[in-house]
Amino acid sequence: MFQLSEEQEQRALRLHRESIVFDAHCDTILQVLEGKRTLGERSKEGHLDIPRLKNGGIKAQVFSVFVKPEWYSDAVHATLKGIAALKREFEKNAEDVVLTRSAVDIEKATAEGKIAALISVEGGEALQGDLDMLRIYRELGVSSLVLTWNNRNAIADGAGDTRSGGGLSSFGVEVIKEMERLGMVVDLAHISPQGFWDALEIVSKPIIVSHSMPRKFMDIPRNLDDDQIKAVAEKGGVIGVSFYFTGYGGVPGNIEKVLDAIDYIVNIGGVDCVGIGSDFDGFKGTVEGLESCEEFINITRGLVYRGYTDEDIRKILGKNFLRVFEKVQS
Questions:
Q1: Helix 193-202 vs helix 170-182: angle between axes, to the nearest 10 degrees?
Q2: Which of 195, 208, 202, 84 is nearest to 148 (CA)?
Q3: Does an H or E element contain 204, and which?
Q4: How far is CA 271 from CA 268, 274, 281, in A?
Q5: Which end of the chain is more exposed for a tag (fewer CB within 10 A), N or C?
Q6: 3-state secondary structure of 7
Q7: C-alpha R_g of the chain
Q8: Residue range 10-25: average pLDDT?
Q9: What confidence score (pLDDT) does residue 6 get?
């Protein structure tokens, strides 16, 4: 890993301390639901919990409620259970974390020295074809929705189900319009390429791709090609670089690959369209240099080492995502 001078190290520590470090995706609630651990206790399991978030200097964390395929027949119930479990964990750890619903809430929480927690739902199956569920989820504190996982649903084809070449459905168009009306962030992680392009034709506000990688690094529909990266940037959106695909299929991942992906997106779309979406606890194993959320400082160190300006580092660490949430909710 990179070696910093003392001046660079102090600069990295200062920037990390002063920035609103924002991680756009984790799946930790799944292990809580399975009874393996809690958010409030430091664990040797997985990648993330509140004590490790505090040590890692992460000030805003999106907790995703993933709708597992085996739950599709009762997806609303499963999603509500996940939201209830998250809110229960936040309440038990109210001294350290608070549920936030907007960019204003995030800034207020961080000013009070608390971790700003946000809730996302991963998989439009959670709607079960009912547009009114969006309002219910929003009122419960959900701030973003990943339209698809890998499978086709009523909204669109997922990245793992592209045989038909289908994209966004008529219902999917209505979902996006209602999300924008409610101030919910549209998340295009996992959507099929055609669904991606269909959605970009519909949206009037910035979107995010919370956890992904450039397809240059791994050529699968789940990742973004250069044209998609440019399109996200043109819409004022943000791509969260995922740690998962830096090590896949037995190939070990490492922080240098994460930084390479950041560099690549910056070169294609500009510094305003890139952030961090770890996908922690959504994969097994570790990424060297980012073994858990406690090592987030290494991203800041790497950005300093690679010559980014202070302002660009602040954008990548969190300002870009905050900007999108603010614009969507205004």
A1: 50
A2: 195
A3: none
A4: 9, 6, 27
A5: C
A6: helix
A7: 18
A8: 98
A9: 97
Tokens, residue 249: 């299929």
Which tokens belong to 330?
Answer: 């205004």
**Phi and psi at residue 149, in whole multiples of 5°?**
-100, -140
Proportion of the chain above pLDDT 90, given as a percent: 89
- At 129-179, the pLDDT tens digits run 999 999 999 999 999 999 999 989 999 988 887 777 779 999 999 999 999
pLDDT of residue 247: 63
Instruction: For CA atoms 6, 7, 8, 9, give the dihedral sign.
Output: positive
Query: How much is the pLDDT for 252?
Result: 72
Residue whose token pair is 């599709």: 72
CA-to-CA distance for 40 and 93, rounded, in angstroms?
Answer: 6
End-to-end CA distance of the chain: 41
Find the length of the chain. Answer: 330
Domain ranges of the chain: 6-328
| CA neighbours closer than 13 Å in the CB half-sphere of residue 160 | 9
What is the per-residue pLDDT across 213-245, written as a single tens digit (0 to 9) for each? Answer: 999 988 888 999 999 999 999 999 999 999 987
> Cα separation of 38 and 31, whole Å?
8
Residue 288 in tokens:
């060297």
d(CA 207, CA 319): 15
Tell me, what DSSP letter sits at residue 249?
T
Q: What is the pLDDT of residues 56-106, one digit of tens each?
A: 999 999 999 999 999 999 999 999 999 999 999 999 999 999 999 999 999
Which CATH code is given to the segment(s) 6-328?
3.20.20.140
Distances (CA, A) of 109 to 55, 96, 141: 17, 10, 15
Nearest CA to 303 among 262, 242, 270, 254?
262
108: left (phi over 0), alpha (psi -120 to 50) or beta: alpha
